[in-house]
Amino acid sequence: MTDQTMTPEERAASLEGMGCRRKRVEDVRFTQGKGNYVDDIKLPGMLFGAFVRSPYAHARVKSINADAAKALPGVVAVLTAEDLAPLGLHWMPTLAGDKQMVLADGKVLFQGQEVAFVVAEDRYTAADAVELVEVEYEELPVVTDPFRALEPDAPVLREDIKDQKEGAHGPRKHHNHIFTWEQGDREATEKVLEEADVVAEEMIYYHRTHPCPLETCGCVASMDKVTGKLTVWGTFQAPHAIRTVVSLISGIAEHNIRIISPDIGGGFGNKVGAYPGYVCSVVASIVTGRPVKWVENRMENLMSTAFARDYWMKGRIAATKDGRITGLWCHVTADHGGFDACADPTKFPAGFFNICTGSYDIPVAYLCVDGVYTNKAPGGVAYRCSFRVTEAAYFIERMIEVLAIELGMDAAELRRINFIRKDQFPYKSALGWEYDSGDYHTAWEKALKAVDYEGLRREQAQRIEEFKAGKTRKLLGIGLSHFTEIVGAGPVKNCDILGLGMFDSCEIRIHPTGSAIARLGTISQGQGHATTFAQILASELGIPASDITVEEGDTDTAPYGLGTYGSRSTPVAGAATAMAARKIRAKAQMIAAYLLEVHDDDVEWDVDRFVVKGNPERFKTMKEIAFAAYNQAIPGLEPGLEAVSYYDPPNMTYPFRAYICVMEIDVDTGEWQVRQFYALDDCGTRINPMIIEGQVHGGLTEALAIAMGQEIAYDEMGNVKTGTLMDFFIPTAWETPNYITDHTVTPSPHHPIGAKGVGESPNVGGVPAFSNAVHDAFRAFGLRQAHMPHDHWRIWQIAENLGLHA
Amino acid sequence: MSKTHVKLKVNGREVEGLAEPRMLLIHFLREELGITGPHIGCETSHCGACTVDMDGRSVKSCTVFVAQANGAEITTVEGLANPDGSLGVIQEKFREHHGLQCGFCTPGMITRAHRLLQENPNPTEEEVRFGIAGNLCRCTGYQNIVKAIMAAAAELNAAKEAAE
Ligand code: FES
Ligand code: FES
């Protein structure tokens, strides 16, 4: 078939643009073991770094003796805080405006904290040397409970700032207090609560967990003494931000630093922050003049780099007798660990937790978050979610269930009568957000119908009868969740991290023969950017996706951007991609008009070409235009065809979803089985449905893990009880169910292609769906609230406490 | 530490070298031989990212000393492409059914699937799920991995039938 005989539809299809289930271009390498992850990098003369870590959660470091380690053949250096202090690098700034010890400076604040950095010729020698470093500790009283941490006589954890009354986010009211963040109208909310027909009150705990990507964090730092140029390959979700931070703290000029994110084996928020390992590797490379690799092992990963959640959320929700919600009140005690290393935009110390009014039209609300130091690892990252949105989703979706119990109402119906209506968008929430678009009722009805909700409730009622009659020991839980996310940070006017505005970027060059390369400020960690961004370009430019190379992750070549997390790549960089493409198209239009000898306004875009209006046989394809752009002198136009766009979104995007989980629970063993899971996602315009579905499967499985067993647990001495994959729950293929995916499409009105972002929704909305299923199974027997994770033991305990084992 | 001499066959090629007796097979493959398909996700035999085929069995190479592999025949994901360099059936099905995202678990997963289909050429979905339960994936939720393996089994069986 030639170009001439193809219909516009056929031409469009051949581009593999937006909406196409395009196979991923990354996979040819990955399926053959030809990925290039950080631990695959091997440079001549490369050394290995490894940490000596604290076995104690809170202790004074009395002395460090590295003589025996240094004497071991193959050991090149041992760094301690004393060595870093003259460079001012024994502490580093965190993303949250706090500072964190790079190596223990006088004391340690959590188990697994970095105390010394050993550099040796190979991994094995480095590990041996770690054992030979002698550290003398004096144990101090440990605080792992954030409520205890705020008592007047609680031990002082951060001696460095104990007298500091003002923190990065306002006044501190106690030596272990970090910040107070208030939103909404307290007075009005409390008045509503006082006068309400019904008020439901509950403490909801979202436990501490960890993103645990299959690849741990690591880097290779290489200082070239001759050129003065520092190159760092690493597991960075935000390579440009890392470059700026490295420059600011090391004093090395930014143009002399090159940060490269190679293939990344999953991130989920774990790879957003800056870790002591990066700083130590850079220093070690400068000191030794050789490249230095540091890759943490799994135990180090779970114990020291970026945990997630750990929010104690006290809620009060008010309603009329017939179920209209009239107000929401929330106080959060946020356990941040030993240092405040949350990855949140500067003005949002609790992230976007103020999205906690969810999908509901709640007239008035008040939120207060107190951040607290404890003897636990620092972090507080968005584990496959937008900043603290997962906590917010869990909070409101539990509060709705509790209110339904209080009202004696069906929880699906309670949601239905309180949803923000389609005609209310753009909707201004009581806690300050402007939701861009949504159609919650349509999605909800579609979901309920798909699972035959009424039928399920009948089955459940019957099951309860049979249980009571002693005919079965299994209960049926129906877990509901409807949540609105807030992603795509974000407008630079209110979103920055350490002063870096959260825009993103794309640079496109069309080659003379009509193929192209695009470079972005984001970085894929499995999302398939090389595939999907090419699809956006294919649709915008009329160039087949297979003729477009997408490159990310090298700060020397890619335009500046804030990276990939918080589902921001599609909303922000995806928009930049479309905008840059439109600049190219504008120039292409002038070239086409010139070649066709008509006025600019007399040609129009048609899939992959400009045609003369009313005369479609006369056209110039993008390919022809590209060639002319470089090889023909066109009056008034510079040669070439390229463009760059830095996109600062006018607003966030607000994807939403309706999830329903049907779970069987064995009352005697606490075992559970997901019988059905229906997931409807509305992420606006869909770029690659295959990839969206894959993201939903993966995010739901993470949600399953979190809700049903995954946690970072500490004992009262501050020992990590779940530091290996033996204890830290990751579902295998065996306990993971099949998911049914579905969608509605409500495009974002302010986004150039209407896309809203999807990667994280399933984790955000999945957790309440699984957890609500467990709660729902026991609702008839009086269960109101049971904290996650719902592992077999804890489920058994629920049944025991309800007297179901008698 | 004194070193011992090891000789093994990796992806059809004879290799030998000196290694400390405590050196793990995964480190020998990755660091001495530059075979970086098998990955390290835990070094405690929980994740399966390091899975290779050793004398016709799936093993987690982080839990095998290279000295134990002396004389063994090892296949890694690098050895599973067709002789002409095109993707092998399992690899192709993983691509077709979107059975991978970040790709970190993929080499271990595909190597395991390869052995599973030798052990059981006609697995049910349950058997596939059970058979790969030693390999963790954080990205895909397994649904498409299972689909890919089932599709590979069907295609391999059809090819076998056609050849008979
Ligand atoms: S690295 Fe071998 S099983 Fe995880
Ligand atoms: S594809 Fe990322 S761990 Fe499996």
What is this entry, summarized?
With 806 residues, chain A is of the alpha+beta class.
List its salient traits.
heterodimer; A: 806 residues; alpha+beta; Aldehyde Oxidoreductase, domain 4; Aldehyde Oxidoreductase, domain 3; 3 domains; seven-stranded mixed β-sheet; six-stranded mixed β-sheet; 35 strands; globular; B: 164 residues; Ubiquitin-like (UB roll); DNA polymerase, domain 1; 2 domains; five-stranded mixed β-sheet; 5 helices; 35% helix; binds FE2/S2 (inorganic) cluster; 2Fe-2S (chain B); metal ion binding (chain B); 2Fe-2S-bd_dom_sf (chain B); iron (chain B)
Structure commentary:
- The complex is a heterodimer of chains A (806) and B (164).
- Chain A has 806 residues and is of the alpha+beta class.
- Chain A has 3 domains: 2-34 and 504-647, Aldehyde oxidase/xanthine dehydrogenase, molybdopterin binding domain (Aldehyde Oxidoreductase, domain 4), CATH 3.30.365.10; 38-141 and 216-264 and 271-304, Aldehyde Oxidoreductase, domain 3, CATH 3.90.1170.50; 307-430 and 439-489 and 652-801, Aldehyde oxidase/xanthine dehydrogenase, molybdopterin binding domain (Aldehyde Oxidoreductase, domain 4, 2-Layer Sandwich), CATH 3.30.365.
- In chain A, 29% of the residues lie in helices and 26% in strands.
- In chain A, helix 11 (389-407) packs parallel to helix 19 (761-779), helix 13 (440-451) packs across helix 14 and helix 18 (689-708) crosses helix 19.
- The longest helix of chain A is centred in the last third of the chain and has 28 residues, at 569-596.
- Chain B has 164 residues and is α+β, with helices and mostly antiparallel strands.
- Chain B has 2 domains: 4-78, Ubiquitin-like (UB roll) (Roll), CATH 3.10.20; 89-163, DNA polymerase, domain 1 (Orthogonal Bundle).
- Helix content of chain B is 35%, strand content 15%.
- Chain B has a 5-stranded mixed β-sheet with strand order 2-1-5-3-4, sandwiched between helices.
- The mean pLDDT of chain B is 96.
- Classes of the chains: A alpha+beta (806), B alpha+beta (164).
- The complex binds FE2/S2 (inorganic) cluster (2 copies).
- One FE2/S2 (inorganic) cluster sits between chains B (100-106, 137-140) and A (214, 266, 526).
- One FE2/S2 (inorganic) cluster (FES) sits between chains B (100-106, 137-140) and A (214, 266, 526).
- Chain B: One of its GO terms (molecular function) is oxidoreductase activity.
- Chain B: Residues 4-80 form the 2Fe-2S ferredoxin-type domain.
